[in-house]
Amino acid sequence: MAFDDLKAELALLINQMENQPEDRHELYLQVREKLNEMRAFGMPLPEDLVKFEEELEAQFKAEEAKAKKS
Hints:
By secondary structure, this protein is mostly helical. Helix content is 81%, strand content 0%. Helix 1 (3-19) packs antiparallel against helix 2. It is elongated, with a radius of gyration of 13 Å.
């Protein structure tokens, strides 16, 4: 898959996030999958998307830890 195609897909995913914030876990999985594809092809990763992935992952871990305490 060409780098421009991946960038377009990632832009679409970001747009979906803005329109459907209640489905952030699915969006996280899709962003993670696309970033992993870019990693596999040795492509440079957009810093903002890497940070976004890390922030979502941290949120999910915090929610999981909170749920275990309850």
